[in-house]
Amino acid sequence: MVTVLLVRHADVDTTTGAPDSEPLSVKGQKRAQTLARVLGMGGIAAIFTSKVERTEKTAEPLAASLGLVTRDTPAPAALAAQIASGTLGAAILVVGHSNTVPKIIKALGGPLLASIEHDKFDNLFVVTVAGPGTAEMVHLKYGEPAP
Fold first, then answer.
1. How far is CA 22 from the centre of its chain?
2. The pTM is what?
3. How many CB atoms within 10 Å of residue 93?
4. CATH fold of 2-141
5. Which strands make up the sheet holding 2-8, listed edge to edge?
6. 68-86 pLDDT tens trace
7. Are 10 and 54 within 8 A, CB to CB?
8. CB atoms within 10 A of CB 43
9. Domain edges within the chain
């Protein structure tokens, strides 16, 4: 079995005027530190992020503390196949976006979720993959509650 932890990137600074490249806000930086503390003892063996800086910065504190280099997230089906193969390790973190996290959960065999609301950054989805297309999911929250 493989446990996949999925989060949307942490809180962003919306005052930059550039929605596609919003950096993490101070609150988001704190949330990234909280994620590192929450998952630091979780046996994370691989971390995937998109190529967008806010996902990389969300994963950075955990990756640094574990001595891991983040990997680019492939398409959901390809990622699910890699994870199901068991070659990545027993615990994986994926930092994505409001529209990609639900697709990855579905590809892993979990339930189909609606897109995550734009102002929600505190979701932590724990998906246990028993085999290709077979998974169970637990939905948790972490850090300061989102509005």
1. 17
2. 0.95
3. 26
4. Rossmann fold (3.40.50)
5. 71-72, 46-49, 91-96, 2-8, 123-131, 134-141
6. 999 999 999 999 999 998 8
7. yes
8. 12
9. 2-141
